[in-house]
Amino acid sequence: MDPSPNRLPRVPMSRRIFLLVGMAVMLVFPAPGHAQPAWSEGDVVRRALARAPDVLAAQASVVRAEAAAAGAGLADNPAIGYQREQLLGDPARAHDVVTLRVPLDLSGRRGARRSLARVDASTVALEAAAVQREAVAAALDAFWEAVAAGRRVQIAERAEATLVEADRVMARREAEGTVSGYERARLAIAAEMARSRAAEVRTRERVARARLGAIVDPSTGAPPAVTGDLATAAPTDRARTVDRALRTRREVREAARTRRLASAATDSAASAWLPVVTVLGGWNAERAGNVDENGFIAGVELELPVFSRGQDVRGESEAAAGAARVRLEGLRARISGEVRIADEQLVAARAELARLEAAVAPHVEALARATTAGYREGERTLLELVDAQAALAEVEERKLDLALEAKRAEVALRIATGELP
Does residue 19 carry a pLDDT above 80? Predict the structure, then answer.
């Protein structure tokens, strides 16, 4: 019987299996258009500042310190009171008193405490800025290490591809009977070593990306892809760079603010010996039988500064002022040193990279052209090819190391000058 025209044709079992496998692959490996975009340097900085655990903890500490500073040095609240006197033997007689007490602290204690609390908040902000700087430095170090690891994979894969081409040439020579057993063994060893090195650098590259994800955003699932240029810009005049860093670095501004607040606390604490004056007022009502009498209460209380004369806030303010002054001076000296060291490293790495590229460029080009084409045409030996490939890979690795060193120095210089938080 002919199949009904409305019935779908049967799909062979092998084709069904193929379709099921294809659907599973699509579910496990999403389409390229939906892949996670590669992280750039700016992405890494933003993620480090927004998601790094140490940064989040430091920001919470700043909020807590600012809240404490907002409540420090407030005036004492006034107090209202009520009293009633009643004689048990004469319920017709009663005495009601309503009072209001308003303490007036005319000394500098409140101002000193308020300034000291702001000093503490500013110190916490200064420490938070240092935590952010360290988080960004660690994240960028991991980022550029991952970028360099990707370049190392390319170098290793080029070396592996060269030996694969040599294997094809050897296969042709074997057919011609012009290959010795030594050459076959030597090529086999070289090819396996190249494969092993390529596998190793691929693992290192995955580990570098995983380390980056763990530092910047622990919630990241798969290790992120990275993209970046290891090229660096020539540094500007060192003296001007140091001067700019001392003027624009966030930590310097915060440390200068801390010193000003500590000086304000010292000025306020100078009058901390003045006593507190309390103004008392109220209403006095007395009832005796059918007679009601009303009056008022007024008075003044003066604190006697016998034991506490503000010596606590004076000592704390002077200590805070001294610490703030030393911290600012030390920070300026450290930043100057950081700028000079990073600038020196950047200049040296760039100079050595330029020298090496200029020195080996003609030799590398001639070596690559002679060995690859020469071995293919039978003019070069296998040992010459393997040696040339090792030399070319060594040159590329050395150039990559210098480029990474220069990039790290450039990042350190940007952080030292305050360009990066």
Answer: no
Residue by residue, what is the 3-state secondary structure of the chain?
Answer: CCCCCCCCCCCCHHHHHHHHHHHHHHHHCCCHHHCCCCECHHHHHHHHHHHCHHHHHHHHHHHHHHHHHHCCCCCCCCEEEEEEEEECCEEEEEEEEEEEEEEEECCCHHHHHHHHHHHHHHHHHHHHHHHHHHHHHHHHHHHHHHHHHHHHHHHHHHHHHHHHHHHHHHHHHHHHCCCCHHHHHHHHHHHHHHHHHHHHHHHHHHHHHHHHHHHHCCCCCCCCCECCCCCCCCCCCHHHHHHHHHHHCHHHHHHHHHHHHHHHHHHHHCCCCCCEEEEEEEEEEEEECCEEEEEEEEEEEECCCCCCCCHHHHHHHHHHHHHHHHHHHHHHHHHHHHHHHHHHHHHHHHHHHHHHHHHHHHHHHHHHHHHHHHHHCCCCCHHHHHHHHHHHHHHHHHHHHHHHHHHHHHHHHHHHCCCCC
pLDDT at 94 over 70: yes
Cα 118 to its chain centre, rounded Å, is 25
* Residue boundaries of the structural domains of the chain: 44-74+106-273+309-416
Pair of tokens at residue 289:
């039988």
Which stretch of 21-35, 183-197, 270-284 has the lowest confidence by average pLDDT? 21-35
Note the pLDDT of residue 361: 86
Angle, in degrees to the nearest 10, between helices 181-216 and 109-176: 160
Cβ neighbours around 315 below 10 Å, total: 11
Residue-wise pLDDT for 160-202, tens only, equals 887 777 777 777 777 766 666 677 777 778 888 888 999 999 9
Mean pLDDT, the chain, whole residue set: 84
- If one compares 381 and 64, the residue with the highest pLDDT of the two is 64
Q: pLDDT tens, 295-326?
A: 989 999 998 888 888 899 999 999 999 999 99
Output the pLDDT for position 293.
87
Residue among 400, 392, 405 nearest 361 (CA): 392
Which of the four pLDDT bands, split at 50, 70 and 90, describes residue 103?
Answer: very high
Residue whose tokens read 């604190």: 303
In CATH, the number for domain 44-74+106-273+309-416 is: 1.20.1600.10
How far from the centroid of its chain's Cα atoms is residue 31's Cα?
Answer: 32
